[in-house]
């Protein structure tokens, strides 16, 4: 297949002819297509921006990441552009499809070891590259490992990837919960101390099991159950009995990835040196063993879909359950969500599920702990650690609420941000070349700012603009494509190249993150909670009834949120111990909010200073002056929105300060009592 990497792909839907559907995911459908002027077959991912709701940031991230990467094992986008309310991402067509589709159509029980070693080695090379450049993929799974007709393996789908060098919103987003539950590392679920690239190593281990068995561990369980099982049970692994066909090296490799403590997991770079990967073969081996004889991708996809539909329609209730589970998975995969909510829902699931014969790994593991401990010491001690994990679970904070006052990015603001082409950023092939990136960042800033502001004319959308617009004009920060802020360090010539560097980066990162706090918990547990009317919250695609979720008795004391309401002397130590991190979190949260407010103030000041002829005009006067041009109208509405955000943030800050004071008093009282 012609790669087309040096060609200029047109940014107009008219220049493409969409053929059959070849895949679908949380947010998009993927079509085979023809780029008419270049006569190249491509794959086009079509996303409906109107349905993407508040995940536009994720989409934008995916597009930026995909357009800048340059590695043979990472799927690079040719270009992307908006077409009406859709976003089209043009990519190389991977005729072999995803490993998941190959499994589903012809290898339901998984692949043979040399195939697995080959697929995994190539995937791991992609991860080494991404991690070395500061990216966490966050959604490594067979469905995102694609093969072309020559057996080349590429890791795709950067919808939820994160940059470890990010600041601002994007850094906070690493406190969020993204990925697909079966593949998700425990530390990602827990949201306690943040996570880093080692989360991908866990997902890589799960993917290894998926390729070996034809499905991921716990895949038959509802997502909430998967969360609990991942957190509380021994890590899954290859089973000595059931997996006799696999080598010791493979079992060991999986064992090293699936260690719950991320620090004990190898880096991707180190993992690549594992003897298991010596079994890997060249790309044509994949052509001979798994690709030859497969029906064309479109036919395969259709067959899989109709098979799934038939199976599910056999039993309507099963079908409905499946649909809701799919929604749940999608919800989890696509959106941030609250672990408290899930935990409560998981508790409603009968424990009979645990005896499900679908997951022999898990049950056998209990009997074979001794054997398995040879692979992963954690497994042997998992039963002993389960209760503490449970305790941890009760203390899991929700980290996302504090920025609820910064709403979603509007569709209009995004238009233009996506219209990118590899040629847009100079004439060179996009690369991680630092000098190029600096240029790219600057050029794209101009383009993104102009694009987003120029398109933001729909008054209906202004309510949603108060996040993206200010960020586009925040000075002294480099902007990247559609306006995401990327710090200088992203473009710095220093790359993370060694394990030691990465560990330093990881420590720095974890230190930064560990302060993030829980406004949700604070809010929920506040003294006036009892007066709160039960309400239904919409979290992505979830409906969560908060009233059902509040732990009983938690409203009697302001301490109960953290300690469960007990005031017995024995529980006081535990309570004060658990309260400290929360206080720290809240303090940090306040600091972050203050930072945000300062940025807003700066922006408001700058906006007002830029008003023609009246640098000293007060904000009120400014807003009362009738705008002469649509540009002025636009700026005025932005200023108003900023003012609103500013006052709601100030209020929030006040509340938090009060709350801090209360907590500090309580802590002092507790400490005195303990002494
Ligand atoms: N370039 C491509 N060539 C061939 N098939 C592709 C290509 N890109 C994606 N696909 C197929 O389409 C499916 C869905 O694509 P993708 O994963 O990007 O969508 P998504 O909405 O981001 O999904 P999710 O978030 O669930 O992973 C993939 O699993 C794969 O089978």
UniProtKB/TrEMBL annotation:
UniProt keywords, alphabetically: ATP-binding, Nucleotide-binding
Domain of life according to the entry: Eukaryota
Composition bias, Basic and acidic residues: 353-372, 498-511, 522-539
The Protein kinase domain, residue ranges: 16-277
Matching Pfam families: Pkinase
Low complexity bias locations: 557-573
Compositionally biased spans, kind Polar residues: 379-388, 659-675
Molecular function, one GO term: ATP binding
Residues that bind ATP: 45
SMART domains: S_TKc
Region spans: Disordered: 351-399, 498-573, 609-638, 652-675
Sequence similarity: Belongs to the protein kinase superfamily. STE Ser/Thr protein kinase family. STE20 subfamily.
Protein name per its UniProtKB record: Protein kinase domain-containing protein
